[in-house]
């Protein structure tokens, strides 16, 4: 079978800069060795995030021109609502400006202080918003997720036994929410199976516990289900996604991913009373019910993006692009979390740089080297992000793995960009011993990775 090319061609382009090695060294030093402090015009290939970084389509831009900016009841809201209702099936839909705004509004009205939110894995802002509501965020990933090399198809699943044990045990009455993240961004972009979601729904029903989806990558999860799970080959990605939403009591979606837009989010609900409370909160903090912090033109782009993202030709091409990128990287001598997901690849930096201890932040060292050698921006997911530190910023409890995430913006980079990144990684893998570790110079209390500053050892 001859692989098909992407189902789109490029119409508008944006230049990317190529700095000299000396300029890159100066830039990363001035940034305190934190890629969040780099300027976009210092970066050649930006794989920091797949969020809000995708390319818009001609149809989305045409729709944006029709944006209705009325304060209340804008036509654009109804077009957005119809697309979101068709996809999710939820009767109550609230637009928000991005995912974490939805988290704040929902948790403030659903979770009480002292309660527990259980997830396959909370995303970092989700975790922070659960804590800011006074509740505890508890991750119960399935056991297969701990083996980075295993080819198990659904390593994003929740551990069903652990979930049931928690609900039946002494903490059971404190569980206020079960939130399934699809796909599991915190754990290697691994998908969640429909069987796992069905089992979670059944358990939650038995214990009368609300069950929600954090569905930022609902279309990509649906595509992986269609490829890997028996019984879904004949359904469309949209039908599979709709089936997933049907199983839950509601959803949070950051639409900056599978909404194919730069900004946007959604709260979907079945419960009218909860909707009323969330709506009051939304109006006070985000905006009126029919725009929720978004412009009419954003709502238009979203209404169109939600239809484009479930196109099988698009999803197939994106999944194959990531799979090819993974093969290039693996052939260049760097291991990635297996199997490859869709929105990002996770490099096993701990294995590539065994001469660095977790306290020397091997993942972060690789992030810096990718920038120094190739102007490539990526993100550490290791002890710098997740480890427990003492007052002198020394690692007390390391993260379970030292990973680096290469997030893949939608419809943005071509095969040559990925080949370039793989080549830079290949050169690093030929002589990894030369790479030195880092130590923390200063760090904030919460959400450390965004503002931390480091120094090379
Ligand atoms: N949930 C998941 C699973 C996410 O991946 C994100 C964001 C959010 C919620 C929050 O949404 O950014 O719109 O407020 N993930 C981005 C990332 C930032 O790079 O993975 P947001």
TrEMBL record:
SUPFAM superfamilies: PLP-dependent transferases (SSF53383). Residues 46-423 form the Aromatic amino acid beta-eliminating lyase/threonine aldolase domain. Keywords: Lyase, Pyridoxal phosphate. The modification N6-(pyridoxal phosphate)lysine is found at residue 257. One of its GO terms (biological process) is aromatic amino acid metabolic process. InterPro entries: ArAA_b-elim_lyase/Thr_aldolase, Beta-eliminating_lyase, PyrdxlP-dep_Trfase, PyrdxlP-dep_Trfase_major, PyrdxlP-dep_Trfase_small. One of its GO terms (molecular function) is carbon-carbon lyase activity. Its cofactor is pyridoxal 5'-phosphate. Gene3D superfamilies: Aspartate Aminotransferase, domain 1, Type I PLP-dependent aspartate aminotransferase-like (Major domain). Pfam families: Beta_elim_lyase (PF01212). This is Tryptophanase.
């Amino acid at each position: 079978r001859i692989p098909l090319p992407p189902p789109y061609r490029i119409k508008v382009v944006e230049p990317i800069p190529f700095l000299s090695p000396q300029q890159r060294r100066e830039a990363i030093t001035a940034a305190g060795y934190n890629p969040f402090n780099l300027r976009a015009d210092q970066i050649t290939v930006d794989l920091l995030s797949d969020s809000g970084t995708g390319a818009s389509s001609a149809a989305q831009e045409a729709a944006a021109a029709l944006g209705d900016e009325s304060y209340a009841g804008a036509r654009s809201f109804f077009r957005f609502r119809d697309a979101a209702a068709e996809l999710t099936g939820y009767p109550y839909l609230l637009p928000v400006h991005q995912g974490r705004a939805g988290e704040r509004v929902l948790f403030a009205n659903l979770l009480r202080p002292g309660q527990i939110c259980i997830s396959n894995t909370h995303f970092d802002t989700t975790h922070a918003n659960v804590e800011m509501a006074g509740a505890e965020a508890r991750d119960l990933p399935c056991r297969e997720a701990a083996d980075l090399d295993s080819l198990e198809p659904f390593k994003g699943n929740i551990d069903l036994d652990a979930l049931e044990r928690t609900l039946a045990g002494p903490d059971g009455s404190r569980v206020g929410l079960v939130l399934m993240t699809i796909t599991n961004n915190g754990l290697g972009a691994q998908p969640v199976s429909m069987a796992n979601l069905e089992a979670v729904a059944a358990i939650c029903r038995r214990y009368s516990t609300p069950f929600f989806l954090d569905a930022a990558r609902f279309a990509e999860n649906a595509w992986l289900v269609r490829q890997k799970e028996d019984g879904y080959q004949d359904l469309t990605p949209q039908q599979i996604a709709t089936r997933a939403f049907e199983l839950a009591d509601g959803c949070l979606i950051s639409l900056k991913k599978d909404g194919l837009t730069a900004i946007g989010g959604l709260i979907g609900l079945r419960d009218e009373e909860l909707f009323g409370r969330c709506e009051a909160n939304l109006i006070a903090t985000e905006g009126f019910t029919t725009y929720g912090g978004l412009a009419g033109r954003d709502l238009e782009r979203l209404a169109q993006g939600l239809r484009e993202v479930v196109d099988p030709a698009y999803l197939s091409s994106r999944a194959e692009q990531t799979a090819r990128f993974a093969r290039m990287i693996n052939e260049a001598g760097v291991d990635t979390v297996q199997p490859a997901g869709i929105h990002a690849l996770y490099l096993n930096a701990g294995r590539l740089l065994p001469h660095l201890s977790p306290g020397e932040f091997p993942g972060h060292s690789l992030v810096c080297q990718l920038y120094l050698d190739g102007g490539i921006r990526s993100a550490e997911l290791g002890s710098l992000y997740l480890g427990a530190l003492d007052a002198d910023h020394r690692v007390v409890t390391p993260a379970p793995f030292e990973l680096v995430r290469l997030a893949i913006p939608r419809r943005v980079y071509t095969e040559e960009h990925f080949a370039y990144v793989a080549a830079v990684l290949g050169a690093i893998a030929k002589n990894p011993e030369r790479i030195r570790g880092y130590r923390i110079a200063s760090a904030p209390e919460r959400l450390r990775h965004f503002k931390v500053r480091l120094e090379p050892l």
